[in-house]
Design goal:
Radius of gyration: 24 Å
Strand content: 35-45%
Distance between the termini: 77 Å
Helix content: under 10%
Number of helices: 2
Shape: elongated
Order of helices and strands: HEEEEHEEEEEEE
CATH architecture: Sandwich
Number of domains: 1
Length: 201
């Protein structure tokens, strides 16, 4: 038995506090005990969360595909974290001009799919994409595609938003409103990602 170990045992027996010469800290990024989050990353690159998706110098009439990982509750303390009934992806313009995404969103030029899907789902102001049931600390491998056809009015810089929302199971007691015992609601903290596209004729 080392001298240090004997010293620790003596302190414990005597009910004394033992002062160590080092401090243990836990990375708060890896262990999260706050509300669950939706986070977007490039595949296998976790040093930086994606907040903006650049699609630079895209020739009209050609596809631009980008792959991402969409995480739910990454590194959360999953013991008390409920699964999400669904994660919904939607897109919306930032205004009524084409440089704010109006033409792209109105015509579904921006689309999404999971890596296991056969084809893409266009995202418009009235259509969304459902990722489905999602356990904590799991991810969906997704791909976004932008294809603005030749002859489209949008040119130069265009911006629009992609929204991620988790629908959570909520238990209701008996209410006079006769709501169902179980129902889903939108997660209180949806995430909004900005897409910046630079389109060329």
């Amino acid at each position: 038995m080392s001298e240090a170990t004997q010293d620790i045992k003596l302190h414990i027996k005597a009910g004394k506090t033992y002062n160590f010469s080092f401090v243990t800290t836990f990375d708060p990024v890896r262990t999260k005990r706050d509300a669950p989050r939706l986070e977007l990353y490039r595949p296998n690159k976790y040093d930086m969360q994606i907040l903006t998706i650049p699609m630079n110098w895209l020739q009209k009439g050609t596809d631009r595909e980008l792959a991402f990982e969409l995480w739910y509750g990454r590194y959360s303390a999953s013991g008390g974290l409920d699964p999400a009934n669904d994660i919904i992806i939607s897109a919306d313009s930032f205004g009524n001009t084409n440089n704010l995404g109006k033409e792209i969103i109105d015509n579904g030029y921006f689309s999404v799919k999971k890596a296991t899907d056969a084809g893409y789902t266009p995202l418009t102001s009235t259509s969304t994409y459902n990722c489905g049931y999602t356990e904590p600390h799991t991810k969906h491998d997704i791909l976004f595609k932008l294809n603005v056809p030749t002859g489209a009015a949008t040119t130069g810089l265009a911006f629009f938003g992609v929204r991620f929302e988790a629908r959570m199971p909520i238990l209701y007691g008996e209410r006079i409103y006769l709501e169902s015992l179980f129902r889903s609601r939108e997660f209180a903290r949806p995430e909004l990602i900005v897409v910046k596209a630079h389109l060329q004729d």
